Amino acid sequence: MKLVVGLGNPGAAYAGSPHNAGFEVVEALARRARAGFRESGRFRAALAKGELAGEPVVLMKPLTFMNASGEAVGAWLRWHRMTETDLVVLLDDVDLEPGRLRIRARGGSGGHKGLASVIQHTGSDGFVRVRLGVGRGDGEREDVIAHVLRPLTGAQRETAAAMVAEAADAVEMILRQGVDRAMNRYNTVAGADEKTESKKQECGH
Asked: What's the rounded Cα separation, in Å, for the pair 190 and 201?
């Protein structure tokens, strides 16, 4: 069994915002698996169980708010005696242009507090993560925090919807064929990922 986690914030105020891109992907996967979400008080998460790519999966939306996402993830893994190798995490990334995906088999948080929480509460960075490009909005004209928390509209919404569908495809490929095949397929811009990682390291992230 695999645990596929989308990071985001609960509540209608955050629906459709870039910061909730992870939620949107696991919701798309739940529709494909014909599985419905139910809230769990024990794990403080919305959970859906089904099958994807011939693999039994649990889809999770932590309800702890973004910066404490790892509490729900760590609790689930410990209770079910699963390890980080059973985990796939989806999260937004402001350093990727809107619509782009980047898949990694392991690594640091890159400054993303939700991912940092998952690393903290699982005790490992050795899990697959799919970063979802949401960009920085209007750059200097718009605060990045305001950008990721504000619902998208118009062309931005269309770009995000296409990315969500592609990310759902990527997760199914990870489950069916492994992370290496998925990275080769979806990390499409040569050299861009390495430049982004170098930039984050230079900035101290």
From this structure: 19
